[in-house]
Design a protein that fits this description.
CATH superfamily of the largest domain: P-loop containing nucleotide triphosphate hydrolases
Number of helices: 8
CATH topology of the largest domain: Rossmann fold
Largest sheet: 6 strands, mixed
Oligomer: single chain
Number of strands: 19
Number of domains: 2
């Protein structure tokens, strides 16, 4: 028991679809909307199950990722972690001081200055006034907003607002920190600083529960991740494995109704002989594409694309374009595979592998898996963009004096 931070035991949360007026406070606004023609009354009907018999144990000092598509139950689970909601059934146990960052800038008042909002938000999030005073300079420095700290936050840009909100939350010192999609705030450099701060909190012994659609951030921050779908935990384990399970399930949903002559059955990304989803720039990687013919099919080629985080192509090739891999003619039931050896001259980012089975002469796509695999690249020193050009810099270049004709006016 001593090493448990959070325990969910058979936790379920049910909501009733439609309107349910079981008090005068609910009934009167509904009647006004109907009489004013601004809404249609929908009586309370069937039950929607947001969480379905969740059993979960989070250990002290653990950093747990929570992923899943929109509507899977992630935010509902976090609100139960934070005590904002109570379960319909089951029991939740929390051991330690818990702080929840579910919305960046929670508690900010637009007419107050940044300075005043730091104090207000800090107290709302669980710090004492003495703590806020002690940490104030660090919070402002982290946000990078010292010149504007006495300006009302209603004059801040959305990025400045979010940076100050995250800076306050990042300087909490709870036993358990629950975070919902906050590492997307600010520009690239601030996101990196925020992620580093979350690592420091985790390495300091705090228990962290992190919900995000940013799979790269989840991968970097969390060793263990759970996948929610339909209010149930459908995968729980090492983060890289759970992310691939998530992507495979999402692809399967898109491809359930497909009827194709040739079908992709598996796409793997290897470092050496082992599957991997984390690479250092310049490393060798192998993409293995396996497929099966459902019907006799002629002139099949495999197209490989590497896409960036925004799903834009950064690299593209095919078996047709490479030597020794002419198009294939396949019999029904015949299985084949293709391998692509790559050197990942990529910058720090999230990338995706896209695969197509294609017939070039008539421009026909038999099947596709986009994304088929997601992987993460790091560089040292850090470079940004799509490609890593392995830059070098020096201060000792000779300075040529300007001629008369080149003089700058």
């Amino acid at each position: 028991m001593d090493d448990i931070a959070i325990r969910f035991s058979h936790v379920s949360k049910h909501f009733r679809r439609g309107e349910r007026q079981d008090s005068l406070r609910d009934l009167l606004p509904s009647l006004v909307r109907r009489l004013g023609g601004r809404g249609r009354y929908t009586p309370a009907g069937d039950v929607f199950v947001a969480l379905d018999s969740i059993d979960l144990v989070v250990r002290r000092g653990e950093t747990l990722g929570v992923i899943g598509h929109n509507g899977a139950g992630k935010s509902t689970m976090l609100k139960h972690f934070a005590g904002i909601m109570t379960p319909t059934r089951g029991r939740i146990e929390v051991y330690g001081r818990l702080s929840a960052l579910i919305e960046v800038g929670a508690g900010f008042h637009p007419d107050l200055t940044g300075r005043e909002n730091v104090y207000l938000s800090g107290v709302i999030l669980g710090m004492s006034r003495a703590e806020v005073v002690r940490k104030f300079d660090r919070i402002v420095d982290f946000a990078g907003l010292a010149p504007f700290i006495d300006t009302p936050v209603k004059r801040y840009s959305s990025g400045m607002f979010a940076r100050l909100g995250f800076a306050v939350a990042a300087h909490l010192e709870p036993d358990i920190l629950v975070i919902d999609e906050v590492l997307s705030v600010g520009d690239f450099l601030f996101q990196q600083k925020s992620l580093q701060k979350m690592r420091e909190i985790a390495h300091g012994g705090a228990t962290v529960v992190f919900v995000s659609h940013n799979l790269k951030a989840v991968s970097e921050l969390c060793k263990r991740t759970i996948l929610l779908d339909g209010g149930r935990i459908v995968a729980d384990g090492p983060t890289a494995e759970v992310i691939q399970t998530y992507l495979a399930r999402e692809r399967a949903k898109l491809q359930q109704s497909r009827d194709t002559d040739v079908e992709i059955t598996r796409v793997s990304l290897l470092r050496g002989d082992c599957e991997s989803h984390h690479f250092t720039s310049g490393e060798e990687a192998t993409v293995v594409v396996e497929f099966v013919a459902r019907r006799p099919t002629r002139k099949v080629a495999v197209v490989l694309a590497i896409l960036d985080e925004g799903m834009e192509n950064v690299f593209y090739t095919s078996t047709d374009a490479l030597a020794d891999t002419p198009p294939l003619d396949l019999d029904a039931g015949e299985r084949k595979g293709a391998t692509f050896a790559l050197t990942l001259h990529l910058a720090t980012s999230t990338f995706h592998v896209g695969v197509y089975l294609h017939r070039t002469d008539i421009d026909r796509v038999f099947d596709q898996a986009v994304p088929a695999v997601t992987f993460f690249v790091t560089t040292d020193p850090e470079v940004r963009g799509a490609a890593n050009l392995y830059p070098r810099a020096a201060w000792d270049c000779p300075v040529r004096p300007l001629s008369v004709g080149e003089a700058i006016e």
